[in-house]
Amino acid sequence: MTRAQYPRTxxxxxxxxxxxxxVSGLAAAAxxxxxxxxxxxxxxxxxxxxxQVCHRPNGANLGGMVAPMALTSYEETRPWARSxxxxxxxxxxxxxxxxxxxxxxxxxxxxxxxxEIDLIVRWAESGAPAGDPADAPEPIEWPSSDGWLIGExxxxxxxxxxxxxxxxxxxxxxxxxxxxxxxxxxxxxFVKAIEFRPGSPAVHHIIxxxxxxxxPGNDPVIHTDGMADVLKAGRDLTWQMHYHxxxxxxxxxxxQSQVALKFYDxxxxxxxxxxxxxxxxxxxxxxxxxxxxxxQTEWTFPTDSEIVGYLPHMHLRGKAAKYEAxxxxxxHEVLLDVPNYDFNWQTTYKYEERKKVPAxxxxxxxxxxxxxxxxxxxxxxxxxxAGASRRPTR
Length: 394
Description:
There is one protein chain. By secondary structure, the protein is mainly beta. The protein has 5 helices and 23 strands. The protein has 3 domains: 6-17 and 146-275, Jelly Rolls, CATH 2.60.120; 26-135, no CATH class; 278-369, Jelly Rolls (Sandwich), CATH 2.60.120.230. The strands form 6 sheets. Strands 1, 4, 7, 10, 11, 14 and 15 form a 7-stranded mixed β-sheet that branches. Strands 16-2-18-21 form a 4-stranded mixed β-sheet, with no helix packed on it. The chain has a 4-stranded antiparallel β-sheet with strand order 6-12-8-9, with no helix packed on it. Helix 1 packs across helix 5 and helix 2 (39-50) packs across helix 5. The longest helix has 12 residues, at 39-50. The chain is globular and about 60 Å long. The chain starts with 5 loop residues before the first strand and ends in a 10-residue tail after the last strand.
């Protein structure tokens, strides 16, 4: 689910679902401009800005996904030059599935300009020269991914008993429980940041009502100052776990996924409480043979509100999603269009500046699906984070 907020006095909600650049070839691109393109002067700054958050040693774990190689030095990057060029030329990388019409709208946007794509393509086709190391930008000091990306947590929760994901599992949905004791939180706490950590490579997504969840590609939730989730004292947590893997001997693993929380020091620091507007739909069946079957759900805002972001979430057959706003004055706006939804990399689209909507605004979510099961990613995917894989001993 996506993250959203209600002001403590004026509600604000975000919407979620439970639920190609044509190129004529690398050689042609290189012929456009014969000026030499080098790694240190031209390519390294682009990699720093858009790629190294994932592609670095011990790179960021985004919803259980970790990049397969580092791109922080010339020696690391050079062997992948032609592959990188192909991936960026087709816009398969960086992963970002929203329509280009939304470029510049969301704070976590990962896109390359045509000029940046052209630089990388020309560099690869010209033999991927290093250039002068003196031209390189200062390296970024990335935080260690051995710890939590949100910093040292105030509380880490996991479900009460580990669960063994059997070898023959392909897709499995189960519920697990976490008992929240008075020793953990003797009173309600306002939550500043939330980070889920999958405990097995078989974890595809996690949903915990009240705290949200993750899917492949998701960042941790770090709220803007003044915004907070609320963790209720004495409320046990229920985890909806989705496991998705290739079945086979030796593929089983134990899972005891975790969630880390950072709290506000004082409730006086909190102006907005965070909620989700659930736009899930479960009572439908895709007709046999349908390739473009659509369903719709809608949400009407009862008060003047602000939308924080969106998480279009579907399962194996989902292929597109669109959020549209119908305002009380009769006007209409496309809020988010995701024409190529990817089950294997799901993005929470977070506004740079929250979207203000008046009371009575009706948001319609249209999802498109197909009977063709999308079991393989459409782009080269980062590997899942490592998890203990062994036969059960209990």
